Amino acid sequence: QVQLVESGGGLVQAGDSLRLSCAASVRTFSSYTMGWFRQAPGKEREFVAGINRSGGITYFGDSVKGRSTISRDNAKNTVYLQMSSLKPEDAAVYYCAARKYGGITTTVDEYDYWGQGTQVTVSS
């Protein structure tokens, strides 16, 4: 069982930057592919970014590409999502997800564990 706890959300202004963190309670964190998703009210959960086990490969959704970074610290069992130039349309609940087998995927159902989410609100 893997428990994921997101933090770092809050209210920011358009144009600001934000760093989200996701702490995992598992001994073998480095064996999991990690992803970030977001879900706005009335919309489907959307892939934001993913990172492979070693951290050497990353992939981003089109909506955040070029203004986001995903990284991980396997010694701290933590994955991060750094977002800049935030827009009102970035407002959503952001979820961290872990995948035991396989590489980065944008498909929600292919992740095995999910956090409770952290709210990001962007004021214009």
Structure in words:
With 124 residues, this protein is mainly beta. It has strands spanning 3-7, 10-13, 18-25, 33-39, 46-51, 58-60, 68-73, 78-83, 92-99, 113-114, 118-123.
What proportion of the residues is helical, as a percent range? under 10%
Task: Give the topology string: H per helix, E per strand.
Answer: EEEEEEEEEEE
Strands, total number: 11
Please mark out the parts with pLDDT under 50 across 5 or more consecutive residues, or reply none. Answer: none
- Structural class computed from helices and strand pairing: mainly beta
Question: Rounded to an integer, what's the Rg over CA atoms?
Answer: 13 Å
Strand content: over 45%
- What characteristic shape results from the CA principal axes? globular
Largest sheet: 7 strands, mixed
Quote the distance from N terminus to C terminus.
Answer: 40 Å
Count of DSSP H/I helices: 0
Overall residue-averaged pLDDT value: 97
